[in-house]
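User: Here's a chain of 181 residues. Predict its fold as C-alpha cells.
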Amino acid sequence: MNAPRLESERMVYKPLDTSFVSQQYVEWMNDDEVNRYLESGGNYDLKKLTDFLRSVEKKSILFWGILLKESGKHIGNIKIDPISQRNKTGEYGILIGDKTVWGKGYAKEASTTILDYCFSNNVQLRKVTLGVVADNKPALMLYKNLGFKQEGLLEKHAFHLDKWCDVVRMAIFNPNLNFEN
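Assistant: Prediction complete.
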C-alpha cells in the first residue's frame, strides 16, 4: 500500500521520498528537543538521511511528508507503519520537526486527516495504535484529544533523557465499524 497525496485545510501530505532530503531535515534529526522522544535521531548527516529515505521509497507503506499549503514548507512527517492486513491495524507515528510551528494545531490537523484516511474505505483499518513515553505530556494530550485511549503501560521500557521511562500504549478504533460479534 502506497501513500497517496492528501490535503487538509492548511497542509498537503506527500509520500515521503528522497525529494525531502534537506539540511533542515538533518537539523531536525540532530536537534535534542525535536528528537527527545524518538527512537531514531541524532548523528544524522545528508548521507544518512538520503539512505533512510531511499529505504522508505522501496517499501509499500503509508508515510507522508507534511507541508504547509501556503508556502510548501516541509514541517514534519506522519506515518501509519507497520500495518497488519490480517488484523486491520496500523502503528501511528508523527514528527513535527519545525519548532517554529509547534503549538499551532498542525499535529492535530495532520493526525485527523491521516486517521480519517486510514479509517475510510480506502484502507479500512479497524484500529490504530501507538506508543508514547509517559513523560511526553504534550503528545499524550494530543492523542487523548484525538480519541486515543490507553490500553496498557510498559514500565521502564524506554531510555530517554538519561533515565528509564514508562511507555503508554494507546489505540483508537475506527468509528465507522461495529465490533460486536
